Amino acid sequence: MDILYLLIPLSAVLVLAIIGVFAWALHGGQFDDLDRHGEAILEPDPDPVDPSQGF
User: For 54, left (φ over 0), alpha (ψ -120 to 50), or beta?
Assistant: First the structure.
């Protein structure tokens, strides 16, 4: 029973930390554009530069 006095507040702190990290990620724009990077792998690469031509 005594362990519950430790585990319940510890789990509450853990939940608050997870919510805080998720809110920080939302505010930082981590979830703004989920489709662009997934579709970028389907697009062809730009033409490679021929090193013999120089700049």
Answer: left
What DSSP state is assigned to residue 14? H
Q: How far is CA 22 from CA 15, 16, 19, 31, in A?
A: 11, 10, 5, 10
Residue with tokens 């090193």: 51
Rounded to whole angstroms, the Cα distance separating 50 from 55 reads 9
25, 31 in Cβ contact below 8 A?
yes
pLDDT of residue 25: 93
Cα–Cα separations (whole angstroms), residue 32 to 10, 25, 40: 32, 10, 16
Give the tens place of pLDDT for each residue, 26-49.
Answer: 999 888 877 777 787 788 877 777
pLDDT at 16: 99
